[in-house]
Design goal:
The chain is of the alpha/beta class. It contains ten helices and twelve strands. It has a domain of 226 residues: Rossmann fold, CATH 3.40.50.720. Strands 3-2-1-4-5-6-10 form a seven-stranded parallel β-sheet, sandwiched between helices. Helix 1 links the parallel strand 1 and strand 2.
Length: 358
């Protein structure tokens, strides 16, 4: 099986490649990434791209159709990946997250790709106070990032994809350790705060709901989706990917982290205005379709893995919000150095970079 992964040099892709190689030893991986964050490694002993037979570097807005030759499945991770980046680069977010995603899916269908997996997000539910959201409930995207995800689904729904099986995995909020860590995620941020300063400051009143999924369990869901037959859920499927038990209020996430690092102080701003981004999610459909690929990593295990990862990195940076592990700051650094334009295109030409397979 030959799988193309876009955005493979990021947070999820760096966990996905070794996961797929463990599960399917004969799988052949091809990567395609703009390499914005490729250097932001966390002390890994092996470069994640060593698992790939070929690594392409380029912009998804200029995706080369030839890259799909001989590909059985596409995992489309590439995106401007959070709300702050989407707000600062809204035009580029739409072009990359929505327009390019639709274009690549069309190209994949034309090339005879059997399965296309789109990394979507439960953030499209936005503010939802009337119980856990199911796939048939209305969406309420509050940010450019969330709008781009539901927009891609809308654009591809009902199109003739030439028999290609399309799976949109509406992931819960990502968390956990990766060889390319992100600290602009709620659990990861809380652990970094506790490790470096012994204090977690919750900017909201702590009541907003967030569903969480460890990055390893995201890889587990993707490994299911790349082989999903149309008979299991339909040729076009949008499904919440996570577990019902993993819906948490923000204050409970903070208290869990503090429990693993005794002495950590948790400060909650009880006078804060309510955070509109509050939603619980129903993952029953995913459980029925993928009972052997349900999330296995608990919140406690995610915290433990993050703490162990920080220790391995000897991470003590109290000013970590200015580190390369905060994606928006890294884009700003590229721009201030003249490497990246305001449209999030590299100033220089990037070419194909082949890699040896592991």
């Amino acid at each position: 099986m030959r799988v193309l992964i876009t955005g493979n040099m990021g947070y999820v892709g760096s966990v996905l490649a070794p996961f797929l190689k463990r599960r399917y030893p004969d799988i052949e991986l091809v990567g395609f990434d703009a390499a914005f964050f490729g250097h932001a490694l966390t002390g890994a002993e092996l470069l994640p791209e060593a698992y790939y037979s070929k690594q392409l570097v380029g912009d998804v807005r200029d995706f080369p159709p030839g890259a799909l030759e001989g590909i059985d499945a596409v995992v489309h991770l590439a995106a401007i990946s959070n709300d702050p980046m989407g707000k600062e680069f809204e035009t580029a977010t739409t072009a990359i997250n929505r327009d390019a995603s639709v274009a690549i899916a069309r190209l994949a269908a034309q090339a005879g790709v059997k399965n296309f997996v789109f990394a979507s997000s439960c953030s499209m539910y936005g503010a939802a106070s009337s119980g856990p959201r199911t796939e048939t409930d209305s969406t309420n995207p509050l940010t450019a990032y969330a709008r781009s995800k539901i927009g891609t689904e809308d654009d591809l729904r009902g199109l003739d994809l030439n028999g290609m099986v399309f799976t949109s995995l509406r992931f819960a909020t990502a968390c956990g350790m990766s060889d390319r860590l992100r600290l602009d995620l709620v659990l990861n941020d809380f652990v970094a705060c506790a490790v470096t300063s012994g204090e977690i400051t919750v900017l909201s009143d702590g009541t907003p709901w967030r569903p969480l999924i460890d990055v390893e369990d995201m890889a587990r869901a993707i490994s299911w989706a790349i082989r999903r037959p149309a008979s299991n859920g339909g040729a076009w499927l949008a499904v919440n990917a996570g577990r019902n038990e993993n819906n948490y209020q923000v204050r409970d996430i903070a208290e869990t982290v503090a429990r693993h690092l005794p002495g950590t102080q948790v400060s909650i701003n009880t006078d804060a205005q309510p955070d509109k981004r509050s939603y619980q999610v129903d993952f029953s459909l995913y459980k029925s379709l993928a009972p052997n690929s349900l999330p296995q990593v608990s919140l406690d295990q995610s915290v433990e893995r993050l703490i162990a990862g920080f220790k391995r990195m000897q991470f003590v940076d109290k000013d970590f919000r200015n580190s390369p592990f905060m994606r928006l700051n890294m884009l700003r650094r590229h721009m201030s150095a003249g490497r990246l334009g305001p449209d999030l295109r590299w100033a220089g030409k990037l070419d194909e970079v082949p890699q040896n397979a592991a």
